[in-house]
Amino acid sequence: MSADFAVVGGGIVGCALAAFLAEGGARVVVHEREAIAAGASGRNSGVVQDPLDPALTGLYEESLEHYRTLEGFDFPADPVGLLLVGEQPFEHPGTELIEDPHRLEPALAPGLFARRIDTGRPVPPAAAAHAWAERARRAGATFRIGEDGPTDGPRVIAAGPWARDLLPLPITPIWGVVVEFELPDAPTHVLEEAGIDALTSDAVPETLFSAVTARGISAIGSTFEPAKPDPEAKAPSIVAHAARFLPGLDRHPMRGLRACARPGSADGRPMLGRIDDEVYVAGGHGAWGITLGPASARLVADLMLGRPAEIPPALDVGRFTSSPSR
C-alpha cells in the first residue's frame, strides 16, 4: 500500500496517531521494530493520572475522554485516589496535609504524612496501546512489525526514547525498574512519594517510591536513571526504599520485574508538532505516555491532516527547533 503517512513507533502514542490519522481518511502504515507496546507503553506502572503540571492538564483531561470511548479497553469509571506520601510534612497546592495516613490507607506505615488528590486510574500496562492498535486496524491502518521505518516521505516520529536516533531533539532515555508483588493487603490508593512533580522538570530524582495495584498485582517502583540498569540487581534497593512506606513488603516474594526506557525531554514535557514539511514528532512524554498519549496523538494527527490544531507553546517542538508548528 502507498501510504499518505508513515508512523514510526508502535507504542501508545504511535498507535493512537495511526487511529486518528486513519479515521481522518489517510492511508497509514505503522513501522515498529519490535512489537506493539514493546517499550515503556507495555512496561510502565500502569496508571492514568493527573501529571501535576498545569501545562499538561488539558492533555490529561482530553485523554480521559478518549479512554472512556476506547473500544476493548477496560477503563475505570472513577479514580481510586492518589496519595502523595512523605516521611516529613510537605506542601502541595490545593491539598490538605494528612497526618498519619495509615488510618486512610492501612497498607502504609504509621507516622507518615500525605496529601490526597482525586486522580489515579490503574490499568494493565500494555492494554491501552493494544486497544489503540486495534482501533487503527479497524480504520484501515497497516502495521509492519520488525521494521525501522522510512527515512523520507511524510512521517511522524513516535519512537519513544529512540526518537533521538532519528531527530536532532533533546529526547533521552530515562530507565525505570518496577517490581511486581501479589500482596494480601494491597494498597487501594495509588501511592507516590512526595516529589513526583519533579518528573516534569529537569531535576528528576534517581528513585521515587510508587505503588499501583491493578487486577491484584501491585507494581512497586521506580527508578529514573540515564543508563540501562540490571533489573535483578536494582530490585533489592527499590524494595528496601518502598518498605519504608509499605512495612513488611520485603517479606513477600517478588512476582516479577520489568524495566523500560521512558522518553525524557529537556524540560520534562512532551514535544509535539512539525519539524519540517515532511516530518512530525510526538515524543518526550517521560513517565506520562499512557496519561497524555491519546490527546497528544490527536493534536499532531489534526496538524498532519490540515485541520486546525492549537498546540500550546509549552508543548510545541518549536521550543527546541525555533520553528513553531502551524
TrEMBL record:
GO terms for cellular component: cytoplasm. GO terms for molecular function: oxidoreductase activity. Keywords: Oxidoreductase. The keyword Oxidoreductase applies. It holds the Pfam family DAO. Residues 4-303 form the FAD dependent oxidoreductase domain. InterPro entries: FAD-dep_OxRdtase, FAD/NAD-bd_sf. The keyword rRNA-binding does not apply. This is Glycine/D-amino acid oxidase-like deaminating enzyme.
